Amino acid sequence: MRSVFLALLVAFFATGVAAHVARSNSLRDEKLTFNPTNVHVKRLAHTPRTLTNAQRLARGLNPARPQLRSSRRLAGRGGPSLTPTTTSTSTDTPTGTDTTTSTDTPTSTDTATSTDTPTTTSTDTTTSTDTATSTSPTPTPTCTAHTGVLELTGGSYNGYVSSETNSFGEYSVTTDASEALQVQYQECDGAVSYGPINFKTLNGLSTYPYLGGIVGFSSSSDNLASNSPNYVYLGGTQESAAGAPPQRGANSFSAASGTAKDYESAIWSVDPTTGAFTAHWVNTDGTSSAPTIMVVQDAIVLTDDTFRFIQTYGDAVIVSLTFAESSSAAVPPQATSSA
After folding, report:
1. Cα 72 from Cα 91, distance rounded (Å)
2. Is the confidence at residue 249, as pLDDT, over 90?
3. How much of the chain is helix, strand and coil, in % rounded to 5?
4. Buried b (16+ CB within 10 A) or exposed e, 145-158
5. On the chain, which terminus has fewer CB atoms closer than 10 Å, C or N?
6. Per-residue pLDDT tens for 183-216?
7. CA 43/CA 51 separation, integer angstroms
8. How far apart are CA 254 and CA 134, in angstroms?
């Protein structure tokens, strides 16, 4: 009888402990979700893919070819004749006076008067006007705008960072080159581009024109470090200074989800030889992290500890990014920030 009682008591405690663990795990999983759940997301505006020639030139791109609205040839327009006009008048009078007037464009006038008197008068008048306009030379631009796309490879992925975002304002992946996100950075005064620098998006989110990192929804802080599953999304942000810690302000994730999160934009480096595209995140205490880039669900994220992240949020694929340059052009400083 006693043994039966002890068995029932052990079973009771075991059941209670299992229920507590299951309930704790359920609450933990519900809290630590990669993206928020049961929220109404706001649709964000994207930059039109067709840019005006002024916008293209400001971004260091070549002008687009003109589109003819009609196949009919344009009729020639009438204009003034380019043939010079010459007028000559000769008059002979009994008094011995001979006057000749000749006009040829450009204007030149010669007048001669002769009479049969002891006094002879000769007048030669020439009028010439030459006007030259000079302007000061335009200062030579000191910056080069580099434009291209971000190739994404790793695991089963072989594509590009997409110009489209998911419903939470996070950039995703595409295999269609025509849908790739076009980015641009400036290299000024011969400085190398190892970074960290800002990358502007040309056909991404119009209100948030910089490619930045946005603190993840379930990150416990703004810091990326080992032994932490914290992460940041790739999304659209405003511009932040190189070396600055996370900033409070407008970004695509906060606008879409309604959840305020901090961001950084000047976190990128690109190898000018290989195009290798890497990130450098600045923590709130000034220390920095060189996070790994991963694809999770339909988003691209950065994390310092891939093991802790996968253990917490599930499967992820480690990928690498490469800047594939399509064009470059000399521009005045800050020309890439104009729309």
Report:
1. 55
2. yes
3. 15, 30, 55
4. bbbbbbbbeeeeee
5. N
6. 999 988 766 567 799 999 999 999 999 999 999 9
7. 22
8. 53
Phi, psi of 31, rounded to the nearest 5 degrees: -75, -45
Q: With beta carbons less than 8 A apart as the criterion, state whether 101 and 112 touch.
A: no
Backbone dihedral region for residue 293 (phi beyond 0: left; psi -120 to 50: alpha; all else: beta): beta
Helix and strand totals (H; E) in the chain: 4, 18
Start-to-end C-alpha separation, the chain = 85
C-alpha–C-alpha distance, residues 148 and 256, integer Å: 27
The helix (run of H) or strand (run of E) holding residue 294 is strand 292-296
pLDDT on residue 192: 57
Stretch (H or E) spanning 234: strand 231-237
DSSP string across 141-173? P-EEEEEEEEEEEETTEEEEEEEEE-TTSBEEE
Q: Which two tokens stand for residue 6?
A: 């002890």
Q: Label the pairing between strands 320-331 and 143-154.
A: antiparallel
